[in-house]
Amino acid sequence: MEKKKKLDVSNIDLVSFEGFYQTIWDSSFEVSDYEYRNEVVEDEDFTFNEDSYQKAVCEAYTKQWERWLQQYVCKDIKLSFVGVQHPLAYNFSTDTIQVKIGLSGAAKNAIIAKVKYHHEEIAGWIKENHTSCDGFWSFLSDDIKDWNRAALFNHTSDRQEAYLAYMLYYIVKAEIGAKNGDDRLEMMAYYNISEQMSITEFITYPGNNKAA
Fold first, then answer.
1. What is the pTM of this model?
2. Which of 40, 145, 199, 200 could form a disulfide with 45, with the two C-beta atoms 3.0–4.6 Å apart?
């Protein structure tokens, strides 16, 4: 019997997620299209379960990121969905997906190896995305030298979970050849998840009848 590997667990956000408000994940666009195609009106002819929709998206998004991390970094990486956090207002923040991530020793070594392999590209993204400026204060260093093993894995290090979350995001972006600022990963996740679920799964007609 194969010995189960001990995993070091952190709580992180999936920082690639753009949220539900006015993004590709906003259900209102698909619900409106459903209304038009079927000549029905939400809350008059049917109800839409927004909470169930968002939970299903977040769970599928977590699974998608687990597959990417196992494919591009290390098969030992495990992700589990915890919940979705909604901001009080959408002015300066958006919804976040919270997960637990488990890393084996081999996974940690693989992460460090990927950072070294993509060093120049990731260093540029860190400098561009985490340098404080007028109207923006970065809580993370803009120097890749500070994104070391202790910063990524030592739970007593300041903002360890944020450093780990962003570094994993940058590694996968680099692995697929994405550029800073493009939304290739988000679109890939969207199309993959859209193939797995339909908006009709969350639509109910009177009498608890599901949409066809």
1. 0.91
2. 40
